[in-house]
Amino acid sequence: MAFFSAPNVRLAGISACVPxxxxxxxxxxxxxEDEADKFISSTGVERRRIADSNTTTSxxxxxxxxxxxxxxxxxxxxxxxxxxxxQTPDYILPATSCLxxxxxxxxxxxxxxxxxxxCSGWIYGLQxxxxxxxxxxxxxxxxxxxxxxxxxxxxxxxxTYPLFGxxxxxxxxxxNENTEGIRFHxxxxxxxxxxxxxxxxxxxxxxxxxxxxxxxxxxxxKRNKLQTVLDGMNVFSFGIxxxxxxxxxxxxxxxxxxxxxxxxxxxxxxxFMNEMIRKKLKIPQxxxxxxxxxxxxxxxxTIPLTMVTELKERLRKEKARIIACxxxxxxxxGSVYFKTNKITVCDLVEY
Amino acid sequence: MDxxxxxxxxASVFEDTNPSNLTPETRFRDIxxxxxxxxxxxxxxxxxxxxxxLKGDDIRKAITVQDLYEIIKSRI
Lengths: 351, 76
What we know:
By secondary structure, chain A is α/β, with parallel strands linked by helices. Chain A has helices at residues 33-43, 57-72, 96-103, 121-133, 232-254, 271-280, 292-295, 302-317; strands at residues 2-6, 9-18, 22-24, 47-49, 81-85, 111-115, 140-148, 166-175, 182-188, 196-197, 215-218, 221-223, 229-230, 263-266, 319-328, 332-341, 344-345, 349-350. Chain B is globular, with a radius of gyration of 11 Å.
């Protein structure tokens, strides 16, 4: 069992940045009026934000990080580590975290790392950062997480394009001896690697002339091999079994009582799947915030984005016990339990 | 696992389908109201009622109500 406990680590603050441009699903050209209504009521996604062609994930994360550092009044030379989680990096190489070190004006003596994960990425990134900080050798760290998930989606694919949105986030974590720390469960099933995949453009299938050929897979789904394929049925089947299982394992291992949890922040996959997960765990509706309506599925950014847009006031003023769970592309999933005590939550940044 | 109960459970996934209109030979994609969301609802029903995990390929390969029943029955 892949459990991990990181004592003496505290989540200090969260920030998120979304592009200003809005796409309304009621106006998606691939839907009839009836189809649009059905899509919105089942997925819960009414609109999403889309980055323009000059804006990357690292731009959005940079804006979120600058605001967070300001609001926390952190000195930049105190920051010892920087983790960047994305599947839409600036370049194939070098790692985008190196560029972000320079751009954020961090010192050279910094641990910087890119992690390639999507829906489960915030949980895995938080674990890597927490494990770097837990013994106090490194004291402060930034976790930058996000995706411009729409960039690799075909606008003519109604199974992906109306679902996804773009966002970048920043989470501040620090060494602190007066806290209980952060606890995790992780798992992976590589057998499901084709459930969400872009086939070409990596080094298994390098870009070739064929990669650009648009193919109509079924009515309303036209894409090429450089664009995202989503097997909705497989992901659904996976999500409704593995997300509840992961949370139950976390509860058992660390003797957590479901009733003592204030908020369950799930990866925002789609409303139909998320509600099924909530009902299986018998969690009351008011403990499960959703940002799906206005931002869609923003891949690895969904959990921190939901905390910023839906829980901002409460996390600023109150103590909270939080469970978060990410699940998807990989297939990869994980859960985390942590307490917050009046943390810094920045106003949503638009760029 | 009972076929008649399964047909009732399957009919309940569709909006306006009377179980008496469904037979084991019915091609479930031809039932009025079929959509990709109904496919997800069938996966959800198999999970909730029978504790069986159906994958995308299971749904894609099945043609009739009987096919779905056999797949689920073999995994209980």
